[in-house]
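Lab notebook page, bench 4
Experiment: in silico fold of construct C2
Operator: M.H.
Input chain length: 296 residues
Purpose: comparison with the prior construct
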Amino acid sequence: ARAALLDTAGAELLTLGGQPDRVLAVAFTPDDGVVTGGADGAVRVFGAGGRLLATARGGPSPVVDVDAARGIVAAVALDGVLRIWTADGLELGTAGGAPEQASDGSTDAFDRVRVLRGGVAVAAAARASGALLVCAPDGTPRVRLDGLGEAVERFAVTSRGDALLVPSVTGEVWRVGIDGEVTLLHAHGAAVQWVAVAGTGPAGADWASGALDGSVRVTRAGRVVSLEHGAPVHRVALARDAVRVVTVGADRVARLWDAEGAAVASLGGPADPVTGALLSADGGAYVAALRDWVAK
């Protein structure tokens, strides 16, 4: 097996060697390196030129998600364990896992991980138990939320990397800081399926959330705009400046909204379903949607 780095046109730039098995997860490092997680349970750190710098091994289970920032590498595997290393492969700490594998008796099986604010904290989400954990790089817990539901793995990270926005099955959107502070941002009338963050705004994050009752809330520079998609909302996307918003619902329609909350375009429907949508980074009026496996 091998992993390759491609440019935006699909041309191969370099090959990441030393992969004895399938690569299941990949992430960039802040210095343009790459971290991979393999089916062999190993996490490999590559420099910007593709040279293998370190290999970290925590167990035999395949790695399902990896992330890295400023000397910290974190991964979660099919055994549900969160493992954290230095960039040269020294293990710093672990958390979670199946009950028979976790020393603390935890029932968490983590599925997603992110390294926050230059490596000062690590966040992990467990879809099955609906738990979110924010911990120090050595695995020491800073804050934990339970009962959030399977959408917890769709948490979004603020552009400053100092907080998470976390959806809940009971309708809340929570802001969880890396310092452990937890703030309720909004309560929808139904389960929240998606949150999205843009890089502007006085707090470093304009954001949007969509729920199963069709409601969408967009907050930009402290101003709140409420939208109604007309069907349960499964996905929300923001342009970088948060001026334009796209929602995708159970009706398989993608709707584009302007800054005032007016729907300006739509795409898809039962006969031509949309399953996902994106906005251009500059907030342009076009929508990139996936329907029938074709990008439009």
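Observations: Residues 127 and 150 are 4 Å apart (CA to CA). The radius of gyration is 20 Å.
Next step: discuss at group meeting.
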